[in-house]
Amino acid sequence: MPAVLRLAILAGFSLLLSACSMVPTTPPAPALETLSPAGPETQRLSFVRDDETRVLIGVLRHDSQQLQLALLSPQGQRLLTLVRDASGARFLPGAAFEPPFSANWLASRLSWSLWPEDQLTDAFAGSDWSITQAGQQRRIYRGRQLVARLEMAPGCQVIHDIEAGYRLSIASPGAASHTDITPDSNLATDPPCPAT
């Protein structure tokens, strides 16, 4: 094999390995049995990136075996369903659109807002991931790098994903249930969570 070709192949492998090393690892997830069963609970999820906002309705339920989040349009059409169980996180077949984020990304960000700080600390133990909390603000780190900042206000969590460039707001309308979703639902028109 000519030396020039061999050097080109080695350079290609080096570039590929360096690119793979830059891909963020999936953070460890806390055990489902450590979260109190709940649901179905209706929430309003606002995804903001590059000044573009997409508002969806989420119906969340979880128990010791499974966490499930159904994403619906403001008119009530089911668009996408996230499932996290013993097999990991995934989107169920039949999605009405291709989300710009992975199932692992959405499941991990949900876990950062759902689980108590001590359960996240236990889940992160022995990994590069860590959490700090002061008052209503949480910070998630991978090594020394700040990955996300969360504002945990009652009824509204705002997740600033610094690494991915997303802001995800999760507003809980309290007593509303999944049967309340109609084209005229207040969930679609209520003001978003306060920007932080």
Key features of this structure:
disordered N terminus, alpha+beta, globular, 196 residues
Helix-strand blueprint:
Blueprint: H1 3-22, E1 38-49, E2 52-62, E3 67-72, E4 78-85, E5 88-91, H2 103-114, H3 117-124, E6 129-134, E7 137-142, E8 145-153, E9 156-161, E10 166-171
Antiparallel strand pairs: 1-2, 1-10, 2-3, 3-4, 4-5, 6-7, 7-8, 8-9, 9-10
Give the structure's gist in a few sentences:
This protein is of the alpha+beta class. It has one domain.
What does this structure look like?
A hairpin with a 4-residue loop joins β2 and β3 (67-72). This protein has 196 residues and is of the alpha+beta class. It has 3 helices and 10 strands; from the N terminus they run αβββββααβββββ. The protein has a 10-stranded antiparallel β-sheet. It has one domain (30-188). The chain is 20% helix and 38% strand. The N and C termini lie far apart (58 Å).
Which strands sit side by side, in order, in the main sheet?
5-4-3-2-1-10-9-8-7-6
From the N-terminal CA to the C-terminal CA, the straight-line distance is 58 Å
Helix content: 10-25%
Counting structural domains, the number is 1
Order of helices and strands: HEEEEEHHEEEEE
**3D shape:** globular
Structural class, by secondary structure, is alpha+beta
The helix count comes to: 3
Uncertain runs are 1-23, 175-191
Mean pLDDT: 78
